[in-house]
Amino acid sequence: MPALPVYRWHLAPDGYATRRQLRARGLRPGGQGVAAQLERPRRRRGPLVAYLYRVDLAKPVRPMTPARWAALARANAARRTCPACRRDAGYVIPPTLGMCVPCAYPDPDDSEGNT
Q1: Each residue of 24-56: pLDDT tens digit?
Q2: Euclidean distance between CA atoms 48 and 50, whole angstroms
Q3: Where would I find the beta strands (DSSP E) of 24-99?
């Protein structure tokens, strides 16, 4: 297995891009392997590594179909639905709480039945 070429941070040659850079151009790696890597040295830990892909082998991003849009909408709705009260919280429920804020921290002064 040949070793990957390693470049210093900001010194990669033209024709290589990271996944984010490919995505910004409307491309995806398209099954190709990592072609090179960037390394940014750090003082107390190992270097930061970014993998590079060849732009000429990249393929266009697949378009979103109506079914994929619907699946994405259902997934986002599930992230907003509180499992305790089954209401749409209007925001993504924090995984640290596991439920909406009113269910996680009920107001002791607000007693149901006393109106």
Answers
A1: 999 999 999 999 999 999 999 999 999 999 999
A2: 7
A3: 27-28, 36-40, 48-54, 59-60
Contact between 52 and 37 (Cβ < 8 Å): yes
> For the chain, how many residues are written?
115
Q: What is the pLDDT of residues 81-105, one digit of tens each?
A: 999 999 999 999 999 999 998 998 9
Distance of alpha carbon 35 from alpha carbon 3, whole angstroms: 10
The number of C-alpha atoms within 13 Å of 24 and in the hemisphere containing its C-beta is: 5
**Nearest CA-CA partner of 38 in 48, 29, 28, 46:** 48
Q: What is the DSSP string of 6-34?
A: EEETT-PPTTEE-HHHHHHTTEE-TTPPP
pTM: 0.66
